[in-house]
Amino acid sequence: MDIELQAIGENGKDGATCSPNERVAAGNGDGGASRTPDTAEKDGLLFGQPASSNGETVSSHHTTEAQRTLGNTFCPRKMNSVCRISRERVRLLLIIICIVVLICAAIGISLAMCAAINVDGDDNFDSSSFKVPRSFNGSFQLPNRVFTEELSTLSSNESQALAAGLQEKLDHLYRSSPALGRYFSKAEIQAFRNGSVVIADYQLTFVMPEEQQDQLRNFTLSREMVYNVFRQFLYDQEADESGGQMYIAPVSLNMLLRL
């Protein structure tokens, strides 16, 4: 078979000319020229970013990987920040607890020291060893009391009621005394006499330990001490007691040591 060779015309009318950079695509016969390598590279990049159905572009594989890497980098930083804040809060809480404990301990130690300092060694005594008696006799006047025949007899109801009230008053006076309270034994009303006002005769009895009796007689249980405690009590009587029948005139107080 003879093959006829035809020359390719250079005129645009005779056929398309191919530039040195273009190749004729084989296959479909459409005669479309292939693109240059630069153009193909650009098309490849565009092809990697297909359009979505609504016309928006979708991120490429490289963009997705970059975002994922950024997210992985952000999460540890965020966790480290949260952990650091938590540690600071725990440390602050521990400091506050330590301060509160120290304050409570300081208060407790201070109270214990104060209690130890205020303990009076004289408060520890055995009253069963107080066997030596010491008595005082005297009298006082009841200016608000009118003398009656029943008061002349100590066994009468009126005398017993008045005597009981006065004895309770004297008992409270001396038992509440810091200096004399531990040694006080009893107070007795021995008689009522008639004068310009009612006069009451009384007796006070104290007991003391034998080994300290000399010192106590000269100081704590001296006549001056016992008398001054009684007189001060009478001056400190409430104003409303001055009008009562149990009121004792301070200036009328007399006291003698009973030998």
TrEMBL record:
Residues 11-65 are annotated as: Disordered. The keyword Transmembrane helix applies. Keywords: Membrane, Transmembrane, Transmembrane helix. The chain crosses the membrane at residues 92-119. InterPro entries: SEA_dom (IPR000082), SEA_dom_sf (IPR036364), TTMP (IPR033223). Gene3D superfamilies: SEA domain. Residues 50-65 have a biased composition (Polar residues). Residues 132-259 form the SEA domain. The keyword Membrane applies. It comes from the Eukaryota. SUPFAM superfamilies: SEA domain. This is SEA domain-containing protein.
